[in-house]
Amino acid sequence: MDKTVPSNHRIAPPDGSREPMRVNIFDAMIGANSQLLPLFPYLGEGAMVPAGALMRGGPGVSYGQFFHTNSVDEVAVVFGTGGAMNAAGFVAVGPNTHLVSSNLPSEEDPQYFAVVSITQRQEIGKEQSEMVTIRCQNEKCKAIVTQVRFDATPPRAKHYADPAGDGLFLSLIYAAEAAEQHNASEAARTCKRCGTVNPPFPLDRWGWAEYARRGRTVAEARAALEHVIASK
Length: 232
What we know:
Elements: H1 25-30, E1 37-38, E2 48-56, E3 66-70, E4 75-82, E5 91-93, E6 97-100, E7 113-121, E8 129-135, E9 144-151, H2 170-183, H3 203-206, H4 208-231
Antiparallel strand pairs: 1-2, 2-7, 3-6, 3-8, 4-5, 4-7, 8-9
């Protein structure tokens, strides 16, 4: 006897707003210029946004750490590791406020590495918010030193034929802003509670500023091309 219970949930058919695409995360991360790099150009409302990250230890390597708050859930999938804490195939959904670090047992040991994806689904017709927090590294303190809260509400999805895509991934733009604010001066990195002068955040290791620079350059280059086409 078939006891299957019918579901009221149905996946809607494609609406043509996003052309189907495929990406191999291992190939994509070879040319990645940033951690948490979106693997597809679709960042608008309703889009599934898988982003790739590649970490590797080595002499003098430090990724630092920060706390990320996201109003939507994030699903982490480990695709491949070398001695890292979670094996390939590990899947987890963390709390909306979570610690972000390399998760390598030793950041100075080159035998440790990991390739992972973090996926979130953009809201539809709702606001999204995120926050980046860097806390004092004094173990007896942990007070907030730098904090940037931002509106991450996705843009209205564009038709896939629009070559401009859905824009830049706001998570990376504002994460870079938080790190730059933290690194601006020794005073900015000094804990107001305990007086500890915290080290600069290793922004270059995460690549967010480079992502922002390249993204803005591409946007200007695209606009220049469109200007030439329009003038013909």
